[in-house]
Amino acid sequence: MTDTDLPSLSATERTRHRRLREQGSPYRADLDAILAAGFLCHLGVVVDGSVMVVPTVYGADERTLYVHGSVAGRSLADAPGTDVCVTVTHMDGLVLARSVFEHGVNYRSAIIRGVPRLVRDADEKLEGLRLLTEQAAPGQWDYARRPSRKELAATALLALSLEEASVKTSSGPPEDGESADAALGLWAGELPLHTRWGRPVADPLLPADVRPPAHIADRSGEWLL
Amino acid sequence: MTDTDLPSLSATERTRHRRLREQGSPYRADLDAILAAGFLCHLGVVVDGSVMVVPTVYGADERTLYVHGSVAGRSLADAPGTDVCVTVTHMDGLVLARSVFEHGVNYRSAIIRGVPRLVRDADEKLEGLRLLTEQAAPGQWDYARRPSRKELAATALLALSLEEASVKTSSGPPEDGESADAALGLWAGELPLHTRWGRPVADPLLPADVRPPAHIADRSGEWLL
Question: Is position A18 within any domain?
Fold first, then answer.
């Protein structure tokens, strides 16, 4: 995208891109598209003085990223005001160049940094969990039994502003097609990687006549990435 | 695995598992299997006092994880002795329960923590890059042009001991099949997620008669996860 009227991400010194090969995007729409394309993130947090990176699930509205924070929650409850980093990465394929040096990965990634809040308000927690659930499994919030007050209290949810975010993507062929290495006569290009949903597997404890609802069954074969 | 003669991961206080629902594994073979199943990791490092989580590629031998460390390398060069965390996650699918509370993700993840070294020895760097390349694209190290002395110097590679590692996996159906929620009559089970290689896309600059080598072409349709 090149339209300069598009809402921009506010880059701070530490989210500005330093490497030239990868492309940063200053556009909010690119951040939204990356977040919309997945549901798994990696949450980095300092626990007992050491960095810890844990996989977890997220949901988002226009301003806030909600992250399921069981591990980090414990630490953040002890140390409110702790800086975190949430990274969402979609791997699109391998870049196979003539030289090993020019090999790489095509990907889209979003990095959101800031000081999260532990969500304590019951209404906000419920809405955050709705966003998380619908991000991974659209339709499940209205289908499954919603959290009880007790379950809500037992869930750690972090809210992180989307204000400090950066987007980095890499796509396209390798960059050594016009270098001296082109004369080597080697094949070069991309090997794409695709992720898609399989067929639903019923819980063995389920009565045989209970069929998956359309919002689950119709997903089979759909591409996630 | 239950064989107690298998080599164990040495859990330290901070890699011990605290949650019951997910399963930790003390076996080195499970760590190796998770590392072998992918090539992308998330590296967490403290940069300028804040946590940063960046996607990057890795390779491993029996004792050491090698990580391409352009971003972290800069920081680690300034501050040797910095603690990092490398997390490898394979997403296997969604766990769809009767209640939202019991929803989850089936996954396999490995977390490796410690103080990495910036690899400076040229021979070790070359071997580390070979492991990285072969991890993502087996066969490419012998096919593509290997790094020159200059390219080697321009590459930041981190070496992290596999000594402090932990494995966590989640698999199988949801856990509320025998709860009161079973009476709701809702469908429950797993929605698997599969990742596989697509067809090679040639660099547009490539002469039409250059075909992909077998180690690339044969990968098409192969499952990564």
Answer: yes
Residues 36-65 of chain B with CB under 8 A from chain A are: 40, 42-55, 57
**What confidence tens digit (pLDDT) does each residue in A175-217 have?**
999 999 999 999 999 999 999 999 999 999 999 999 999 999 9
Pairing of strands A189-197, B189-197: antiparallel
- Whole-complex ipTM: 0.89
Residue among A210, A61, A111 at smallest CA distance from B43: A111
List, in order, residues 6 or more apart from B115 with CB less than 8 Å away.
B81, B82, B83, B84
CATH for B32? 2.30.110.10
Residue B220, pLDDT score: 82
Residue A41: closest CA among A28, A23, A54: A54
B40 token code pair: 């992308």
pLDDT in tens, A138-165: 999 999 999 999 999 989 999 999 999 9
Q: Give me the residue from B50, B105, B144 closest to A100, CB to CB.
A: B144
Residues B55 and B163 in one domain: yes
How many Å from the N-terminal Cα to the C-terminal Cα in chain A? 20
What's the whole-model pTM score?
A: 0.90
List Cα–Cα distances, A207 to A4, A127, A210, B100, B157, in angstroms: 56, 32, 6, 20, 53
CB A193 within 8 A of CB B137: no
Q: Which residues contact A21 (CB under 8 A, 6 or more apart)?
A: A104, A170, A175
| Residues B41, B88 share a domain | yes
Q: Is B72 helix (H, G, I), strand (E, B) or coil?
A: helix
Q: Residues B168, B205: one domain?
A: no
The answer to whether residues B108 and B165 belong to one domain is yes
Cα gap A175→A21, rounded to integer Å: 9
Question: What range does the domain containing A224 cover?
Answer: 199-225
Same domain, A17 and A46: yes
Identify whether B11 is part of a domain: no
Residues B35 and B73 in one domain: yes
**Total of domains in chain A:** 2
Q: Quick check: is B181 in a domain?
A: no
Asked if residue A224 and residue A134 are part of one domain, the reply reads: no
In the stretch 169-198 of chain B, residues with CB closer than 8 A to chain A read 173-174, 177-178, 181-182, 184-198
**Contact between chains at B145 and A213 (C-beta distance less than 8 A):** no
Q: Is residue A7 part of a domain?
A: no
Considering the domain architecture, whether residues A141 and A208 belong to the same structural domain is answered as no
